[in-house]
Amino acid sequence: MLSPMQARAFVIFCCLLLCGCGRLAAQGAGNAPGAPGAKATWTNGNKQGIGTAWSTRSKVWFTLGDGVLTEVYYPAVDRANLRLLEFIVTAPGDFFERERDDTTHAVEVVTSDALVFRQINTSRSGRYRITRTTFADPERQSIVVQTRFEPLGEGPLTLWVYVDPSVNNSGLEDTATASADALVARDGDVALAVGCSRPFSSQSAGFVDVSDGVADLRRDGRLQRSYARAASGNVALLGRIAETDSPLDVTVAIGFGTAAEAAVREMRASLARPAAEIADAYTREWQAYVGGLKQVGAPYDRQFKMAAMMLRAHEDKTRRGAMIASLTIPWGDETDAGTGNVGGYHLVWSRDLYHVALAFDALGDHDAALRALEYVFAVQQRRDGSVPQNSWLDGRPYWTSLQLDEVAYPLVLAEQLGRTDAQTWRTHIKRAADFLVKRGPSSPQERWEEEAGYSPSTIAAEIAGLIAAAAIAQRHGDAASAARYRRTADDWAARIDQWTVTRTGPHSREPYFLRLTQRGHPDAGERIELNNGSGTFDEREIVDAGFLELVRLGIRQPGSSLLETSLAVVDAVIGVRTPNGPAWYRYNHDGYGEKPSGRGYDGTGVGRLWPLLTGERGEYELAAGRDARPYLDALLAFANDGLMLPEQVWDRPAVPGPAFQFGEGTGSATPLAWTNAGFIRLALGIQQGHVIGTPEVVQQHFLQAARP
To answer: In this structure, what CATH number is given to the domain that contains residue 610?
Structure first.
């Protein structure tokens, strides 16, 4: 039997236990309900900034869009792990705003020679401003977001951080846990951990749009129900940072690792170091790299440096030389993230890699150009000499077609970079050249990855590749192969007009180049069904500017009546004068772009303007001895405030919403490595007075062939 004192103590203990259990329930010790949550998607492909540490020690890449942190890649540049990290602001009553949706966004490049970006988000209600500066920790697997929160009105506001992970290239199989100093999500062999320089005073893990706490905050600014764990679904994490009516400076860090413990360690280590010190180390590495490259003068210098850093930032840090097309998922906000097989543009195309490698070599980073070529030969190339349409970093094909220009360009690059040793000749170059002779000139796909047949741009690449391979064969005493490659190249060069130039087309009374013919009969009026739901048309109606590769690669001299007539047709049919300068569609009736309503491409749409084609046109004008500067000026103007150069820009003044402006980037892919490479080449070409990357061995061959 208990004494009276013991009985009272027991009652007090039980009361405290019950109170504790009540608080535990309120704070959500259990699993969140509502699995798997809302449909998982990615974010818009139009980025205002991307970044990574220059060093290979840190294997984390970040992207910025719509005022927030969007996809973050780790441990490789083809593996995305985050949808977004944003702040939420509440106040007593029903005040609730999300940073992405309820603020106006501005972005600034902090310094022209480092990938440091400042995002300034101002509440449309006038209640607050959030300034965030983002960079990577070069010593850690982590991203740092230096943040200033400024209430602008009366009364205190509460700042929350909201994290929507999509770990391991998927947003549907994540498991999240929440504690006072770490919001953690994991899937397979990747985990991320978000922490703050101020421990979270409350936190929760839940499922997106079901139990993620947003509905609670929207209702009265308080987290009524919270949970410690959300397992296997589209999860989200929420942490309360502080309530304040004064400016507040905090640092948020996101650590990554192969397990939760490792991710938390990386995050804590970055938070333990002054953010300014990390930013300084990060900046100095980039400045040292940029300082060793070739430079151009104003007004192109800032964009030129950014373009150079863009190319380097798209290279993987484990599989060196693997340079992806873009750190984006085009129209990702309408793309299902429930599968880990969404490649977006974080894949490797050998054609894009060729253009990037040319730019690296022109910049003076010869080693990066060689790494790119070595990657194609060592990882992508098959035993028969072909390469896949595109691939993951490990060489696994993503799409499964074949594009013969992607087989040919590495041969041109090998000759230009001096990668012509005996082993490379036997193992890689001869196999690829033999494959071209056997399979060309008609290609299962041309450079726009949609149609089979005889394409001027593809055949130009094949011809140049065979002439380059012939020169290498000659050096190694294989006269028979050299003769076969030259004979084939000369034959195709002599017959390309026969295969691809129409004399009966609707756009001109004079002959002009077509985009492609399916069977090499340009006057037959054969019907061609275009991809992306565009429809079926007479082949003679469809044009593009791919024939300019004949000049850039040294096969034809500029200024001929055929080339000038074809340019006039291209300008009339697919050219648009935007407020930022001239631009062109890939071809008429293209369907790869936003729908007329402005919704994202989902297999059908309307093709928009491609700035990289402005760069190509500028190179032709330079080759022809005309003024190429207006085309470089246009490229400069196509960049957004973060100096990101896009894949596509909007093509008309009738805008379906505030997202698109005439002559500015769409939701496709910004930045695009190919566009940045084109800017670098055109800028250096204007400076040096000649087209960058025209292979001398090809140019000399056809100049000699043209002499009496």
So the answer is: 1.50.10.10
